[in-house]
Amino acid sequence: MNQPTIKTFGIIGGDKRQLFLAESLLSDGYQVILAGFGKLREKGFDNLSGVEAAVLYSDAVILPLPSVRADKSINAPLATRSIFFSESEQESLCEKPVFAAMRDRLLRAYPKLEGAAVYDYAARDDFAILNAVPTAEGAVELAMSAYEGTIFGSRSLVVGFGRIGKLLAKMLSSLGSEVTVCARKPADFAYIEALGYRAKNTQTLSFACGYDLIFNTVPALIFDEKLLRNTDKTALLIDLASLPGGVDFESARTLGIDARRALALPGKCAPKSAGEIIKKTVFSIIEEVKR
Question: pLDDT tens digits, residue range 20-53?
Fold first, then answer.
């Protein structure tokens, strides 16, 4: 890294996750410069700054998840205006480590950062594994609030047996739901059955009847119009997959199926834990680079 010692972090953009991240860094003795949170001024936040100051006077910069929007602005929902990095700010960023999410998207928006030390914390396995916990918990919370019955005694279908699918199936089962899991690999089928769940093959999934709750974690169009026509109209369908998702929502609406897209659940349901996960991952990267 260009900076051997990091004493001040600039946190630019983001939501409650970044606020808890800042709070945690401050409690560890670091200095923090927050930018892109202008809407919070009226709530008494006194360590807010402009983007230029956050870039110039920090030893490292942490960007949100995702770092940039489609229009190349920084993802800053709590800012009072759209934020774009100026030429001079990009030059300053090239002189220090930048921790971002979805690095490729950031570099497409700001190609001048190609030569900078930009580290993608969201692309790491440790981040994804830790983030799967609040995602699964958030999915269960959404199901509890939207489903008119109880999780206990319900019939659940979890499509996908990755990080989130594994944790979600375990949580649902522990709450008394009868769980069926869709997977593709023989090893996954064995694991699913060993844990006491029912197993289905995702590749041959042609109907999804007999379930109260359906959770999709696969980032591919699984629930197309054909499958939705063979899905119970009374089921609650929650799509946890990253965009473009795994559900044809237009067809679901036409067919009268309650389908809900649930993105960024850690930031909505567990921002404190999500902020800590970002910090832990950033610190892991720093330690690895020092070696």
Answer: 999 999 999 999 999 999 888 654 455 678 899 9
The DSSP-derived string for 81-101 is: S-----HHHHHHHTTS-EEES
Comparing 37-46, 181-190, 225-234, the range with the smallest average pLDDT is 37-46
Task: Give the separation between CA 33 and CA 54, rounded to whole angstroms.
Answer: 5
H or E element in which residue 32 lies: strand 31-35
Query: What is the DSSP secondary-structure string of 222-266?
Result: -B-HHHHTTB-TT-EEEE-SPTT-SB-HHHHHHHT-EEEE--SHH
Choose among 105, 158, 95, 167: nearest CA to 131.
167
Q: Which two tokens stand for residue 23?
A: 């709070």
Residue-wise over 159-194: b if at least 16 C-beta within 10 A, else e?
A: bbbebbbbbbbebbbebebbbbbbbeeeebbebbee
Q: Residue 214's beta-bridge partner residues?
A: 157, 237
DSSP letter for 68, please: B
User: For residue 134, which of 169, 167, 176 has the smallest C-alpha distance?
Assistant: 167
pLDDT tens-place string over residues 122-174: 999 999 999 999 999 999 999 999 999 999 999 999 999 999 999 999 999 99
Q: Domains of the chain (ranges plus CATH)?
A: 8-122 (3.40.50.720), 127-267 (3.40.50.720)
Measured in degrees and rounded to the nearest 5, phi and psi for residue 12 equal -115, 115
Query: What pLDDT sits at residue 1?
Result: 43
- Check if the beta carbon of residue 163 is closer than 8 Å to that of residue 129: yes
